[in-house]
Design goal:
This protein is mostly helical. The chain has helices at about 5-15, 25-50, 50-95, 100-105, 105-110, 120-125. The longest helix has about 45 residues, at about 50-95.
Length: about 130
């Protein structure tokens, strides 16, 4: 649909309308309305930032939200630890126990991993 002819007709009809009467103090009224809106916006801004009650309410809400988030995170971590512990216990439970023959020489095997202590009697004989 071509808009140009419609726009031209609309312009022509609007140009035929008589000018609306404007009060002699129109500009002063507009400026006064602007000043009124600016002062109202300033009051809203002051109320938003300057109201201690509102600040305390928002601070309390923020503290509650952070506390709930912290408790949820702590619960999640504890649950994850319990799950990991259960997996480790299941892994150890599935591992077969060593035979009795291995355990008979356990003390000798355990001493092999320790550093050797000098034999004072042998050292005294060698001197």
């Amino acid at each position: 649909m071509d808009r140009e002819p419609i726009q031209d007709e609309l312009r022509e009809w609007l140009s035929r309308l008589p000018d609306a009467p404007v009060a002699s103090n129109f500009t002063a009224r507009v400026m006064q309305a602007i000043d009124l809106e600016e002062s109202a916006a300033g009051r809203e801004r002051r109320f938003f930032f300057g109201s201690w009650r509102l600040f305390l309410q928002r601070a309390a809400a923020a503290v509650i939200a952070v506390s709930i988030a912290g408790l949820a995170l702590q619960h999640y971590r504890a649950d994850a630890q319990r799950s990991e512990l259960a997996r480790n216990i299941a892994l150890v439970a599935d591992t077969p126990m060593p035979s009795v023959e291995v355990l008979t020489n356990f003390d000798a095997i355990r001493r092999m991993g320790q550093p050797a202590q000098p034999d004072d009697e042998l050292l005294a004989l060698l001197k």
